[in-house]
Amino acid sequence: MLLNSKRLLALTIVALTLAGCASRNDAPTDLGDDDAFCRQNGVAAGSSDYVACRRDRDVQRSNSITRANRAQRNLGEYMMQNPSRP
Fold first, then answer.
1. Are residues 31 and 57 in contact, defined by beta-carbon separation less than 8 angstroms?
2. Alpha carbon distance 71, 59 (integer Å)
């Protein structure tokens, strides 16, 4: 019975760890709704200012994803170059 409890706990921990990795490639949500952001400044949808606002938001999101990917890659490289030995 105790062995089954330990296995269940181990599987739960592994599942939670993998669930955190599953969302690694999702786009950052901290930028919010682009349409609402661009319209709150009184810009009409379809105007050149609206298009520029949406383009700027896309660039910000792309830069954010690039920074996150670079940080992940740097962490992986650091871990490969500096393994901890028990």
1. yes
2. 18
Domain borders along the chain are 46-86
Contact status, residue 64 vs residue 31, Cβ threshold 8 Å: yes
Q: Which two tokens stand for residue 7?
A: 């296995």
pTM: 0.54
Q: Where are the alpha helices (DSSP H) in the chain?
A: 2-22, 34-39, 48-81
Terminal C-alpha separation, the chain: 31
CB distance 57 to 41 below 8 Å: no
Residue 68 to residue 85: CA distance in whole angstroms: 27
Q: 73-84, pLDDT tens digit by residue?
A: 999 999 999 887
